[in-house]
Amino acid sequence: METSCEACVQWAKPSRFRRVCPLLVDTPDGLRCSANTADVRPFWEITWRYYGRTLGAIYVAGVLGVFGFLRIIGYPISIVHVAWPGLWHRVPQARGWFFMERATRAFNAGKTAEGLLYLVNAYEFDPKNYSVGLALAKHYQLGQPQFSDQFYQRVMRDHPEHSHATAQDWYRALVARGDFGQASELAYAETISDPEHGNFWLRGLLFCTRQRGDDTPLRAMLADKSPAAALWRQVLETELLLRAGRTRDVRAALERPWPKAAPPFTYYYQASVLAALGDTFGALDLLGTQAAVIGDEARYTLELDVLAAAGSHQLLKQRLNLLLGQPVRGAEFLPTIKLLCAHLIRFPDAESYTRLAARFANEHYEFDTDSSGIWFSLLCAAGAVGDQARVHALVVQLKAASRSSFRALDAAEMFFSGDSAVRRATSFLPALPLPLEVTYALIERYPGPPLTPENKNE
Predict the structure, then answer these.
(1) H/E/C letters for each residue in 303-358?
(2) Helices (H), 126-260
(3) Taking Cα atoms as reference points, which of 2, 42, 51 lies closest to residue 22?
(4) For the CA atoms of the chain, what is the radius of gyration?
(5) 0.70 exceeded by the pTM?
(6) In b/e form, how buried is each residue of 304-342, taking b as 16+ CB within 10 angstroms?
(7) Helix, strand or coil for residue 29?
(8) What's the rounded Cα separation, in Å, for the pair 242 and 253?
């Protein structure tokens, strides 16, 4: 009861130090230690409990403040995400989804610039969000394709588990805007790295190189020793012979034995080449015998085109009647509508289109994500057959359904009416979510004049 405490001598209120040292007592001479020197010991447990409660109270207040602020703004977040450090990564994710939702609303309202700004904000807060990155890539496709390509590359790099699916989206975007050079490079790379979807990619490679008149990627793949490339050797050899005009050699190549376990596209390709050589019945026979391997959609697509190209009007009419008279309803009939639209774009027939449009109207399809591509396909098919009245009616209907001005529809209507100075389908294709087969048909039907430095950006 004689020794004063040096630890609290500088404190404005030394008595407060008793909260962490209960040995101090009040005496007439001030605070004194109630223990002998040998018995003095620290009270760390009391110290840590005192400061821990203080820090805990500050932390809780901070969590409540941050949570309240974020909820007032509208972020879809739980208080657990703010309070638990292990879940703090969910906070920027929630902010990203918040801006993603705002972007969706802006796009639905036709406010494209505002929607893009929200998407950029969403990606800044949550750069690992695959959906946001992919949405940015798709929306930049319309006005700034160079940024679109950068985002596709970034998304493929950052999300390898989705890289092949992303590559297909990117390929569709490249083809729609007529960038066949970059599309060829992508198709070549994916044919090698994604053999599971080799049928899709090799057809894309053939299509794009035909549009460019460039055989270099085909020769490079022919020289490639990888198993994925070797799978397509006979197709590549036959295609190069066909492009060189060596029809006898092409016929000989087709007659040589082909692998029994060949991919489905191999048979599709053989049938298409037979049709190109004028062997209509040979092509149809091959499609019939390999129908189970090729698949109904690919088979009917090529069958219709082969019959139309050969002028077999009676057989073509029978096939169209069969397809239009199918008893399937709803979503099951959508693939048939798609392939019929693609066929009518390549080989216009106003009567067949009228019957197709009537069947579509009887199905009472709503305009939604699943059916939107078919609606736009019908519009393009109407333009291809010269039914301008139906084109205009569909434009009005689609604008009302999307609740936006949708200026790309005006561009498409002008294109099909002949009022547009641009005669290349890729001038409006990037804005329309069309099935790839319909995109192929439109590019084949409306390739436009040869690309030159003056018109390469049209």
Answers:
(1) HHHHHHHHCCHHHHHHHHHHHHCCCCCHHHHHHHHHHHHHHHHHCCCHHHHHHHHH
(2) 130-143, 145-158, 163-176, 180-193, 198-212, 216-223, 227-230, 233-243, 247-255
(3) 42
(4) 34
(5) yes
(6) bbbbbbbebeebbeebbeebbeeeeeeeebbbbbbbbbb
(7) coil
(8) 10
CB burial string 371-405: b at 16+ within 10 A, e below: bbbbbbbbbbbbbbbebeebbbebbeebbeebebe
Query: What single letter denotes the amino acid at residue 307?
Result: L
Element (H, E) at 25: strand 24-27
% of the chain exceeding 90 in pLDDT: 55
298/216 Cα distance (integer angstroms): 27
458 pLDDT higher than 60: no
Q: Please, what's the b/e burial string for 25-38 (b: 16 or more CB within 10 A of its CB; e: otherwise)?
A: eeeeeebbbeeeee
Q: How far is CA 379 from CA 373, 393, 398, 436, in A?
A: 10, 9, 10, 15
Which residues neighbour 439 within 8 Å (Cβ) at sequence distance 6 or greater?
A: 172, 175, 176, 429
> Pick the residue with more confidence: 185 or 31?
185
Residue 35 carries which side chain, given as an amino acid letter?
Answer: A
Q: Tell me the three state secondary structure of residue 31.
A: strand
Q: Is the pLDDT of residue 234 over 50?
A: yes
Q: CA-CA distance, 378 to 434, in Å (whole number)?
A: 10
Say if CB 397 and CB 373 are below 8 A apart: no
Q: How far apart are CA 203 and CA 216, in angstroms?
A: 16
Query: Is the distance from CB of 323 to CB of 336 less than 8 angstroms?
Result: yes
pLDDT score of 76 more than 70: no
**Pairing verdict, β 30-33 and 24-27:** antiparallel
Task: Kindly state the tokens that stand for 14.
Answer: 């030394």
**Which of 86-95, 288-297, 322-331, 377-386 is predicted least confidently?**
86-95
Rounded CA-CA distance 193/186 in Å is: 10
Long-range contacts for 216-220 (Cβ within 8 Å, ≥24 apart)?
Answer: 217/184, 217/185, 217/187, 217/188, 220/188
DSSP reduced 3-state for 163: helix
pLDDT digits (tens, 9 = 90+) for 280-317: 999 999 999 999 999 999 999 999 999 999 999 999 99
Q: Specify whether the CB–CB gap between 395 and 414 falls below 8 A.
A: no
Q: What is the pLDDT of residues 168-192, one digit of tens each?
A: 999 999 999 999 999 999 999 999 9
Q: At 107, is the pLDDT very low, low, confident or very high (cuts 50, 70, 90)?
A: confident
What is the tens place of the pLDDT at every residue in 379-405? 999 999 999 999 999 999 998 887 766
Closest residue by Cα to residue 374 from 405, 332, 408 = 332
